[in-house]
Amino acid sequence: MHTLIDMSDIKRAQINLTNVSQLTLFANRFAKLLEWQMPLFSEHPWIIFLDGDLGTGKTTFVRAVLHAMGEQGKIKSPTYTIIETYTIKSWQILHADLYRLADPEEWHFLGIDEYLNEKTIFFIEWPQKGAKMLPKPDLLLHYTFLPQGRALELTAFSQRSTLLLESVHEVYM
Questions:
Q1: Which of 1, 8, 66, 73 is CA-nearest to residue 34?
Q2: What pairs with residue 151 in β-bridges?
Q3: Sign of the torsion angle spanned by Cα atoms 109, 114, 116, 122
Q4: Contacts of 143 (CB under 8 A, 6+ apart)
Q5: Which H helix or E strand runs over 16?
Q6: Which of 42, 49, 54, 40 is nearest to 122 (CA)?
Q7: DSSP H or E segment with residue 37
């Protein structure tokens, strides 16, 4: 089931994915749409929050996006390093997993703000651990388990992510 819900400035879409192959296929399509969008709205970094229970596919999704964008190397989970960085084409892509942060203040010690510019895409897992220290997201991807697979709810918080979500709806739904 795929739906696009209009809530004035906030748009949501939900996709049910029955297996990892579907998650990977969606991530590949998402990566292509994100690449298409990057030059259109390049004044700020893209901030994408990923939320959901352990094992719902957050890291798997980011890995698939990075591979689809052209990353050739091994993509490690940032569970223990907290952050991994990649340079793909002219973009810097950051992938953070904040699950192990004991205090939201630790965010400042990581020095992440120095990396954020108009050529940055920043995927942040477990954003609730960063509380109010994190930049405002463009997009939230919320994963939940279903009896068969998982549901992925996408929530857009900016004009550019709303356009991305509408493109996802046209391409995927």
A1: 66
A2: 16, 144
A3: negative
A4: 50, 51, 52, 53, 56, 57, 58, 150, 151, 152
A5: strand 10-17
A6: 49
A7: helix 20-37
- pLDDT score of 86: 94
DSSP annotation string for 56-68: SSHHHHHHHHHHH
Domains of the chain, CATH where assigned: 2-153+161-172 (3.40.50.300)
Sequence-separated (6 or more) residues with CB below 8 Å from residue 71:
86, 88, 93
Kindly report, residue by residue over 91-113, the tens digit of the pLDDT. Answer: 899 999 998 887 777 777 777 77
Rounded to an integer, what distance in angstroms lies between the CA atom of residue 101 and that of residue 31?
28
- Going from the C-alpha of 102 to that of each of 95, 130, 138, the distances in angstroms are 18, 9, 25
Token output for 92? 């810097």
Which tokens is 137 given? 């997201």
pTM above 0.90, yes or no: no
Cβ(159)–Cβ(149) under 8 Å?
A: no
Question: CA angle, corner 155, sides to 87 and 2, nearest 5?
Answer: 105
Q: How many residues would you count in the chain? A: 173
- The maximal CA–CA distance of the chain, rounded, in angstroms, is 42
Sequential DSSP letters for 76-134: --TTTTSEEEEEETTEEEEEEEGGG-SSTTHHHHTTGGGG-STTEEEEEESGGGGGGGS
